Amino acid sequence: MLGNTIKRIIDIIFSLIAITLLSPLFIILAVLIKKEDGGPILFKQLRAGKNDVGFYIYKFRSMKVQKKSLTNKENPYKWPDRVPDDFVFKTTQGFNPNVTEIGKILRKYSLDELPQFFNVLKGEMSLVGPRPEIVEITNCYDEEQKQRLHVKPGITGWAQVNGRSDMNHGTKIQLDLYYVQKKSIFLDIKILFMTVFQTLFGKGAI
After folding, report:
1. What's the distance, CA 179 to chain centroid?
2. Can you give the pTM of this predicted structure?
3. Do 30 and 16 touch, CB atoms closer than 8 A?
4. Which residue from 160, 139, 112, 133 is spatially nearest to 46, judged by alpha carbons?
5. Beta carbons of 70 and 62 less than 8 angstroms apart
6. Which residues of 2-20 are buried (b: 16+ CB within 10 A; e: fewer)?
7. How many Å apart are CA 133 and CA 149, to the nearest integer?
């Protein structure tokens, strides 16, 4: 309990400092995003939070504005038992024509994730924890996979600093469960330092 209180205090202090110091960068990125195609600055998406409680995650928009379909798209994730271990949600390899020019830079250096400091400040996320998954996928979790939802999702996590987005779902789950079982302030600090190093060198995308 004390550890959770300390973690929350660190989250609040660090997110306030980050938002204050990065506010000039926020303004610059917002202007560049808006200038490129006139679309919205932020992207919001429903994700699964602690104990599978949904919340809207904030990101700087890195994709071109898509015309909304008049019909609801069918959920492609309908695994009956669990999310397959070999499932990979996305890849950083190859050319994606829907990514904007500024979006390429945002993704390379994980700058699109910066608005999530507001999610942290609101208490929906933590600085460190399993990355928040979309609800269409978490709805297919089995009991083992659901254990990653026992803690708040994070801006960065143990899985992200040990492979990031180029890993399959089974590996990600095992790394996330390791964090859930071993979580501590010291492990969080280690993950934060590893994240800074990887972000500076543009390794993959969180």
Report:
1. 16
2. 0.87
3. no
4. 133
5. no
6. eeeeebeebbeebbeebbe
7. 9
Q: Is the dihedral of CA 129, 133, 138, 139 positive or negative?
A: positive
Instruction: Give the whole-angstrom CA distance, residue 96 versus residue 112.
Output: 16
Q: Is residue 122 within a helix (H) or strand (E), and if so which, with residue range?
A: helix 116-122
Q: Could you list the pLDDT tens digit for every one of the 206 residues in the chain?
A: 667 899 999 999 999 999 999 999 999 999 999 999 999 999 999 999 999 999 999 999 999 987 765 445 667 888 989 999 999 876 444 568 889 999 999 988 889 999 999 999 999 999 999 999 999 999 999 999 999 999 999 999 999 899 756 689 999 999 999 999 999 999 999 999 998 888 777 555 44
**Per the structure block, which two tokens stand in for 31?**
């202007």
**Using a CB cutoff of 8 Å and minimum separation of 24, what contacts does 92-100 make?**
92/164, 92/165, 92/166, 92/204, 92/205, 93/166, 98/63, 98/64, 98/66, 99/62, 99/63, 99/64, 100/33, 100/36, 100/37, 100/61, 100/62, 100/63, 100/64
